[in-house]
Amino acid sequence: MNDNSLKNMYIHTIGCQMNVYDSERIARDMKAAGYDLTQSVSAADLIVLNTCAIREKAEQKVFSFLGRLADLKKKKPELIIAVGGCVAQQEGRKIISRIPYVDVVFGTSAIGRLPNLVRQAKSRRRRIVDVELAEKIEEAENTAEYPDAVTGFVTIMQGCDNYCSYCVVPYVRGREMSRTPENIIAEIRSLVSMGLREVTLLGQNVNSYGKKEKLCSFPDLLARINEIEGIRRIRFTTSHPKDLSDELIHAFRDLDKLCGHIHLPVQSGSDHILKLMNRKYSGEQYLEKVVGLRKINPEIAITSDIIVGFPGETESDFNDTLNLIRRVAYDGLFAFKYSDRPNAPAACFPDKVPEEKKKERLQTVLDVQAVFTLDKNEAMVGKTEEILVEGPSRKQPDVNENTESDSEFQWSGRTSANKIVNFSEEGQIFCDRNFKGRMIRVRIDRAFPHSLRGTPVYIEPPECKPS
Ligand code: 5AD
Ligand code: SF4
């Protein structure tokens, strides 16, 4: 093939929102290098796998995906396979020893160098490994392309300095580093000019944004983003409870665009386990933060992460976790079985919990939480909520949720508290039927375990996009 012709690139992303954001940047940079995105693996000239190392299961997905590419590479030897992200950073050259047909391994700091690495792999016909961790944050150019997206992510900081004893992030994402407010704001403005209405700010611990570099505080950054014309909603993730300041709690009252939802991972309700995890707060201190948040905004939705079966977790420790879940009454939970990670100190901790026990505890957590999630959704019925319409409902029909009409077209959006609301078009007030990106007031009619259903009562008129 002529090297100047347009080539196809398939990107497969595993893991968190930060990886999704990184993959968007990869797509943008590689497009400038002549690669167009394709949805077909077999049509690709370049396959990029963006990986996650947070739990063993995520890492297994990486190797099973790569395993499935063996035949394709045999048939198409000129195909370039590039593996990036956290597993690439963690394993480096070992990935090539295990899967010899991988051409490029690029770490979490090497994303900006990928076009060059691919070029080198092609021209020199040799394997390339670039896993050097950056000491300074690399500012991507603000040329983001979100064709048509209503919501999107912006990374405000990278890495983590907290060293929770179970976690691989500090080793694969490096030291905590924050971007400047000017660059963040410029990126959000550019996204807004392309139609973005809601931004989710990403960082491993946004509460410590800018501290090391003596930039502004995170609440100050939020206040500056709140001033950007055209942005309707601001969300952020993730907050470490130990760094949740009163100033940030007050932002939920003072900033009109800041959504009423916080993801505040607790990990465990047992003080003994929290200490072993190096989380630097107790169950009571965590509960005080929850009380503080609800005092400022009684409607605020609180979600969390829980790890079950951490080494040394007894029945009594596990009961402390269940009690904390009951006392908080979360809006939603992500629960995980503890998994040993390379480099993370807990991998060497004694008293490992058997897999069967972890499985059983995970199910108990999910069962306890399911009641709260449904109760909270049912409490919404009859209320009127403002939602931002993101587009057509993704799951159609929702077979699990017994919708009245299986074939009915539905729009989907989220409330400020991040609850999904679906609604149909019947009885619309405007003939312009594209609701994407508009704020709509919806009366909630029905509650399901993972979504709500409503009827629009007010739809804001079509908006002129800022030029
Ligand atoms: N085992 C299980 N869960 C983990 N998490 C992070 N590391 C591990 C691990 N080794 C979970 C935490 C974190 C979420 C993103 O993943 O709950 O908040
Ligand atoms: Fe991992 Fe803890 Fe940092 Fe979160 S705060 S990324 S769990 S080390």
Could you explain the architecture of this structure?
It is a single chain. By secondary structure, the protein is of the alpha/beta class. The chain is 32% helix and 21% strand. It has 3 domains: 7-130, Response regulator (Rossmann fold, 3-Layer(aba) Sandwich), CATH 3.40.50.2300; 151-378, tm_1862 like domain (pyruvate-formate lyase- activating enzyme), CATH 3.80.30.20; 384-463, OB fold (Dihydrolipoamide Acetyltransferase, E2P) (Beta Barrel). It has helices at 17-32, 56-67, 70-75, 86-91, 94-98, 114-124, 169-172, 181-193, 218-226, 246-254, 271-276, 283-296, 315-328, 355-378, and strands spanning 7-13, 35-37, 46-51, 80-85, 104-106, 128-130, 151-155, 157-158, 177-178, 198-202, 233-237, 261-263, 301-308, 332-337, 384-392, 411-415, 420-423, 439-447, 452-459. α13 (315-328) links the parallel β13 (301-308) and β14. α13 (315-328) packs parallel to α14. The longest helix has 24 residues, at 355-378. Mean pLDDT is 91; it is low at 397-406. Bound molecules: 5'-deoxyadenosine and iron/sulfur cluster. The site of iron/sulfur cluster (SF4) has 10 residues, from α7.
SSE layout and pairing:
Elements: E1 7-13, H1 17-32, E2 35-37, E3 46-51, H2 56-67, H3 70-75, E4 80-85, H4 86-91, H5 94-98, E5 104-106, H6 114-124, E6 128-130, E7 151-155, E8 157-158, H7 169-172, E9 177-178, H8 181-193, E10 198-202, H9 218-226, E11 233-237, H10 246-254, E12 261-263, H11 271-276, H12 283-296, E13 301-308, H13 315-328, E14 332-337, H14 355-378, E15 384-392, E16 411-415, E17 420-423, E18 439-447, E19 452-459
Parallel strand pairs: 1-2, 1-3, 3-4, 4-5, 5-6, 7-10, 10-11, 12-13, 13-14, 17-19
Antiparallel strand pairs: 8-9, 15-16, 15-18, 16-17, 18-19
